[in-house]
Write a structure and sequence with these properties.
Layout (H helix, E strand, L loop, with lengths): L1 E2 L5 E2 L2 E2 L3 E2 L3 E2 L5 E10 L2 E8 L3 E8 L4 E2 L3 E6 L5 E5 L2 E7 L5 E7 L4 E2 L3 E2 L7 E10 L2 E8 L3 E8 L4 E2 L3 E6 L5 E5 L2 E7 L5 E7 L4 E2 L3 E2 L8 E9 L2 E7 L4 E7 L7 E6 L5 E5 L2 E7 L5 E7 L4 E2 L3 E4 L5 E2 L23 E5 L6 H11 L5 E5 L13 H9 L3 E6 L7 H17 L9 E5 L8 H13 L3 E6 L6 H11 L7 E4 L28 E7 L9 E5 L9
Parallel strand pairs: 36-37, 37-38, 38-39, 39-40, 40-41, 41-42
Antiparallel strand pairs: 1-35, 2-5, 3-4, 6-7, 7-8, 8-9, 8-10, 11-12, 12-13, 13-14, 13-15, 16-17, 17-18, 18-19, 18-20, 21-22, 22-23, 23-24, 23-25, 26-27, 27-28, 28-29, 30-31, 31-32, 32-33, 32-34, 36-43, 42-43
């Protein structure tokens, strides 16, 4: 955060050592609020200074120190925004003339590139943009001086920018954007001091229009914060008196919940160690943090981190560093993560075979928590899971039970899945999914589907289904379950069709394009696109959408 003396300060909490205290980063005449992001395993802090020049500093875990602020070429009228996209580090802001500029660090093209103008919507951009990766696209969302909201994106598929698209609504705050349930959400404070949200749906291929989710007592001030936590879309705000409230969408919108604290700044939210954190600056310049823990079942209450010399001002930036489970095998591209599923054990020998056939280790491996009686196949062991994790490979968990014909059978299957996962020390309440294997000839009734979802969620795991959307009864039974139990709509789907696209190398895997079914909630996040290329190599080839990587163990 920025101190009242114009310097930028960093403080952190470590489970092993507690609060660090405030460390000055030696910025001169910083203005506004800094931006933070993780790039190349470095913790970057970016700020503007008097006159609009942009400076960047980073902490390197290998060097164990900050590098010192370096001036970038950009000149912004407001705060910068930082994002990582396609292996590049982006610094984005709005110029005094109302144009949006983006400055890129590209390691494959000589490092820092000259700032590029993305133009401006009609009336010019104002305030601070929101920049978010959505699928293969990098979205830039802004409001104009009059409050009109526009969005523009770059597609790595077409290698071109879209035009500025009006979202047909007005905001009094800068927009904030995130991805939830495969939808691209744009959220902000309306001119009437309500919270408005609009989203782009891949099913309708259009925005739905801004709608109000209301306001807590005392209306809304400043800009909201949005974060996805445990399959919930959280919107956190402060009121005109500074009171902090949170509201979330799960299977429906919750009520506004008071967090029993006040901020002078806008709230900042993040997820850390399976806790949902809300951080801000108080009226006396102290930094306060509160968190919700699923193990506690409630918020823990605001606690002070103290303050830098003279106190903090502006809005804090909050980032988890080092990032959890960093992988030397990032997703192949922004379209999908590539992997395989198999009943074979994950060993040094099998990974060597995978590398030889497909060119590299997979991003993930689908493994069975159990196998059907009499199949003679092996299930996942703790040793094999530990080996996969040591290679930074995520595990897509599968439960293989057979026919699921009733409510009680579905509940029993969920209990079995939770028990098998617990034996492997798979953590609970961290958004990890377990997919029931529903083959084309299997039965999964609507009662079974509903009870499996409800029971597994009560055990701290998230439900999913491997299914065939084109053949069999699963589609109809799933939609019936959604109608009877709205919670079923939170389940993720893993499509087995089309499953005959042919074996590929990892580098040539197809664009994510599974068959889906229509008529009810469709959260297809995984696709088995190819069966084993020969009888001697028992690996199916799969993809998951990249922003769903946290579903893995």
């Amino acid at each position: 955060m920025r101190g009242t003396d114009g310097n930028i300060y960093d403080t952190f909490y470590s489970a092993s050592s507690g609060n660090s205290g405030f460390y000055p980063l030696d910025a001169d005449n910083a203005t506004g609020s800094p931006a933070t992001v993780i790039y190349n395993n470095q913790f970057h802090v970016t700020t503007t200074v008097t006159g609009g020049a942009v400076y960047d500093d980073y902490y390197s875990a290998s060097a164990k120190r900050f590098s010192g602020f370096q001036k970038r070429a950009s000149i912004f009228a407001g705060d910068p925004v930082t994002t990582v996209y396609n292996g590049q580090y982006h610094v984005t802001g709005i110029s005094s003339g109302g144009n949006v500029y983006d400055e890129i660090y590209d390691p494959n093209n000589g490092g820092w590139q000259a700032p590029a103008s993305l133009g401006a919507p009609s009336g010019g951009a104002a305030g601070k943009p929101a920049v978010t990766v959505y699928g293969s696209q990098l979205h830039f969302t802004v409001r104009t001086v009059s409050g009109a909201v526009y969005d523009k994106f770059y597609s790595s598929t077409s290698k071109a920018f879209s035009g500025w698209e009006s979202l047909d609504g007005k905001l009094a705050s800068d927009p904030v954007t995130t991805v939830f349930n495969d939808q691209f959400h744009v959220t902000g404070r309306s001119p009437g001091n309500q919270i408005f949200d609009d989203y782009y749906s891949p099913n309708t291929k259009q925005y739905g229009g801004f709608y109000s989710i209301g306001a807590p007592p005392g209306d809304v001030a400043g800009k909201p914060a949005v974060t996805v936590y445990h399959s919930q879309f959280h919107v956190t705000v402060r009121t005109s008196t500074g009171a902090v409230y949170d509201k979330f969408y799960g299977s429906g919108w919750s009520n506004w919940e008071s967090l029993n604290g006040t901020f002078a700044s806008d709230p900042a939210t993040t997820v850390y160690s399976d806790q949902f954190h809300v951080t801000g600056v108080s009226a006396n310049g102290n930094v306060y943090d509160n968190y919700y823990s699923s193990s506690l079942g409630h918020y823990d209450g605001f606690k002070s981190y103290g303050a830098p010399p003279g106190g903090a001002t502006g809005n804090p930036a909050v980032t988890v560093y080092p990032p959890s489970n960093p992988s030397p095998y990032p997703c192949l591209n922004t379209d999908h993560c590539w992997g395989v599923d198999t009943v074979d054990a994950v060993t040094a020998g099998s990974l060597s075979d995978l590398n030889h056939r497909w060119g590299r280790n997979p991003d993930f491996i689908g493994q069975y928590l159990n196998t059907r009686p009499g199949s003679g196949l092996s299930s996942l062991t703790k040793d094999h899971a530990d080996f996969a994790h040591s290679k930074n490979i995520g595990i897509l968990l599968i439960q293989d039970e057979g026919q699921c014909t009733s409510d009680s059978v579905g509940k029993g299957y969920a209990d079995d899945a939770a028990s098998d996962a617990g034996k492997l020390s798979v953590p609970t309440n961290q958004g990890i999914f377990i997919f029931m294997d529903v083959e084309q000839g299997d039965t999964a009734t609507s009662d079974c589907i509903s009870s499996y979802v409800s029971e597994l969620k009560s055990k701290g795991y998230q439900p999913g289904f491997y299914e065939n959307p084109d053949n069999g009864d699963f589609s109809n039974n799933y939609c019936s379950a959604v109608s009877a139990n709205s919670d079923v709509a939170s389940a993720y789907l893993w499509s087995s069709e089309p499953g005959d696209t042919g074996s590929t190398t990892a580098a040539n895997s197809p664009k994510f394009g599974p068959d889906r079914f229509s008529g009810c909630a469709d959260k297809t996040v995984a696709w088995q696109y190819a069966l084993p290329p020969d009888n001697d190599f028992n690996y199916d080839e799969d993809e998951i959408v990249p922003n769903r990587r946290p579903l893995l163990w």
